[in-house]
Each structure stands twice: as C-alpha cells, then as structure tokens.
C-alpha cells in the first residue's frame, strides 16, 4: 500500500496558503524559514547557555502560536476570516512583512558569530550596541514580531491573530530571559547600562 503524499501536501499547504494573494504571505515566510535554518550553522562556539527546562517558558507559547499560525488549524476548525483586505491590502502586508524580516536579518548579520537560537553566552561575547542594536536591544524579535502581527492581521483569521500574539509574547519572554542572563554573564555595568540606554523591542520608547 503506497503512501499518498498529495494528501499530506494538501493538509500542509491548504487554507489561506492556497489562494492568491494570501499565498504570497506564505511564500514570504517560507523563504525566511529556509534562509534562517540554512544560516543556523553560522555561529560561534557556545560558552554557557540557559537550561532546557527554563527555556520552556518562552518555547511553549512560540510552539503553540506557530501551530495556530499554520493554515490547517483554521481549516480543520472550519473558521473563516474576520475580514478580507483585498489584493492591494495583502500586497502592502507582504511588503511590510518582508520589511520586518529584513530588519530581523539585519540584526542577525550585525550580531554575527554571537547569534544563537537559544539563550547563550558565546566565546569572547561582548555587548553589541551598534547598527540595529542601537535602535532596539532585540532587533531580530522586533522584526519578526512586526512581520508576524502584520501577516496575522492581513489574513484575518482568529487563529493567525492569536498565533501571532502568542509568538510575540514568547519572543518577549525570551528577550527578558536573555537580558537577565547576559546581565549576569557580561556584567551589570556593561549590559545593564545598555538596557538602560536602548529600548527593548519597540523603537523610540523609553528603555526598560
């Protein structure tokens, strides 16, 4: 008995990802995921990191949010969009989402070998406060949160909006945990002073 991959594909690539122009939003995020995973091997050697159990505080909301963000959840529940933006609205959302992703990539490239998918201290780790890190302390999260919220709202499903919110909360929690960790490892005088000088995630807001 052969396995029908077309059925699996129809589940994985269904719902809001099958109709143009919302399909464009899915392609934007698939391109991001492919490039992000492909670049995951470019990072420095880890010196110390947060324990796995502690990391569940941010991993769980991101995981649940990611599941809700997928098209098959709303399709399975039979939920319809709360609103329809139209082609122009979706194209604008795609540009804004891509801009958020570009900002996140700027942050990752500027961070260089100090980047990690987990909360870690790399060898020779130091405070980076230039480029996007002079605008916000977590430009990667800023860009991704912005892009995810824009996409979720553009699609207009309760599941995508709730998924974007949960992912955003998870990234915010991860950012807070990173700051506690790095303040201890890099020193309050160095990283703590940086936190008091630069906004966390939203540009132009007061630090802290």
What report would you give on this structure?
The protein is mainly alpha-helical and 208 residues long. Mean pLDDT is 86; it is low at 1-11. It has helices spanning 5-12, 22-38, 52-69, 71-77, 86-111, 139-155, 158-186, 188-197; strands at residues 46-49, 120-122. The chain is 63% helix and 3% strand. The longest helix is centred in the last third of the chain and has 29 residues, at 158-186. Strands 1-2 form a two-stranded antiparallel sheet. The chain has a domain at 56-115 and 126-200: Four Helix Bundle (Hemerythrin (Met), subunit A), CATH 1.20.120.1630. The chain is elongated, with a radius of gyration of 19 Å. The chain has eight helices and two strands.
* Alpha-beta classification: mainly alpha
Q: What would you call the shape?
A: elongated
Helix-strand string: HHEHHHEHHH
- Sheet with the most strands, sense and barrel status: 2 strands, antiparallel
Quote the beta fraction: under 5%
Distance between the termini: 59 Å
Helix content estimate: 55-70%
Order of strands across the biggest sheet? Answer: 1-2
